[in-house]
Design brief:
The protein is of the alpha+beta class. It has a 4-stranded antiparallel sheet.
Amino acid sequence: MLLAAAHEGDANAQHLVGRMHRKGHGVLQDDSNAVEWFKKSAEQGHAKAQAWLSFMYLNGHGVPQDYCNAREWCKKAVDQGDASAQCLMGFMYEAGDGVPQDASKAVEWCQKAADQGDRLAQCFLGYAYENGYGVPQDYCRAVEWCRKAADQGHAKAQYYLGIMYSKGRGVKKNKHNALEWFQKAAEQSCPFPAPPIPGNVYIESITNEITLFEEGLVMHHCVGNYAEDVRRGECYFYRVLKPTRATLELIADGKGWTVGQIKGYCNAKPSSEVVKAVRDWMYANGRYVAVEDLAYAIADTDEEHLSLALDLGGYEVLRYMDEFATLELCFDAVKKNGMALQYVPDEFITLELCFAAVQEDARALQYVPNAFRTPELLLAAT
């Protein structure tokens, strides 16, 4: 009956059929058909259809992107007081699409929409007041508008409200309330791409930006800032639950996925048990090439971790440790593999170190400086 009414020229029915095609509800998703029906309805003065048609032109959905048409159809809708069109006009001023970029006008239009209960506009106002965009910074008003949108189920507003509670901006700092809002947002958050390596019982993939932000909050580090990098396929994050808690980053290096960082609470170095667990997980998934990167990722000033890095990544790891190396560490490296001598910093090269290197592997002789090429050392290399 709805389609029949649309064919008979009913503007509201045409608008609804357009939305069905846009969303793929009851029909195949088809933006071109959606535009066709929105246009029929919009030409009869239907404000919501005009707003939708503006949106389609603005983003190039079903029609070539056309900012002029987007602006014109949006203006027709805002002249009728349509809240979604007012919000869209605000976003156009924010981005400078079809109109001059103007933060004050962006806020002005979104304020009109927010006053009518548009949750998208309310969320935008929360963001604007939090960051002083187009208005003086005001955390209390930011919380007020974010809460209005969050109470209507807007995921990003719930996310922003969680940030407010986590940082004590405009409200009393409350970790429990922050996590509660993050959880609400996570339940409807758009997922990240599939993880490059499947997790297991103790290494869980972080599948959306809300959970990523929550991980940063719980672990007291900045991992929550990397959501866009994950969406671009540049990195991926995991929660390590056992043997001790940590956050794991994998990075795309052009050849595959390798370990970027492993961090404990407050960016603390991971325990050796965690590093070994990550190594075993990488092995189990056929990521043998990532072992050296694993070693580089954990190399730090702690002697235990430097030694572990050498064990995992081999002697070449030594060349990444210039500022952390010690004479003892260099001895440990050349005793395990004499060829590590080529990466020992000059200030740590001694006759004894050279002896240890050539005794382990005679080929290390090629890296012994002339000043240390004594007859005894040459004899040890034969």
